[in-house]
């Protein structure tokens, strides 16, 4: 693999220090299976949702967040005390259920997506999970839905998991609408390792590289890229 120069442009000193301290473990399939088994067990609702999604939409394999990421999302939502959350990219509802479960009874999740077909599955599973009262779905391009919201801070937590070329646009609409101390999560920020492969020139990988560099330069937040799933960036608005 030819190493992508963009990878060494950002966070240079931290990367050099990281190379001589302790690095994150590489996960073999066996180690990943072990890791998942040490987390909270998957309940019937989420297990059925994964199976039904695979059956209905086989071409969309890999769209849902993984079980450890789901549990992490629920825990983080709960630990943070978030009451108002927004999700960009709902698909069939896995991550939205994980977010909604972390919210209090009177908490709200605004779920944004373009697909009526995919989110119709989500609606059924929100009912089954007992979270449908917390979730409001808005269909349409997420950038337009975000721009139509009042400009003042209202969200405690945001989760971005839609088209990768759109991440910077979502970020710029979200940050001003986050309360101080609010948490932003962005999924797929390692692009299966392709972010550091210079031969990888697709728009979605370049979208993620640009997004990651955008965050490094953004002093409104403190952020870390976690090696969970396909890379999960966790940021806190100052
Ligand atoms: C990777 S999937 C989300 C998976 C979901 N978070 C989960 O865990 O099940 C990406 C979703 O983003 C949606 N999407 C793509 N482009 C979009 C856009 N411009 N506006 C809103 N949603 C979009 C797709 O319809 C799809 O449902």
Automatic annotation (TrEMBL):
Keyword Methyltransferase: yes
UniProtKB keywords: Methyltransferase, S-adenosyl-L-methionine, Transferase
Organism of derivation: Nocardiopsis flavescens
Superkingdom, taxonomy of origin: Bacteria
Single GO MF descriptor: O-methyltransferase activity
UniProt cross-references to InterPro entries, sorted A to Z: Cation-dep_OMT (IPR050362), SAM-dependent_MTases_sf (IPR029063), SAM_O-MeTrfase (IPR002935)
Key word Signal present: no
GO biological process: one example: methylation
Lineage of source species: Bacteria, Bacillati, Actinomycetota, Actinomycetes, Streptosporangiales
Protein name: Caffeoyl-CoA O-methyltransferase
A Pfam family assignment: Methyltransf_3
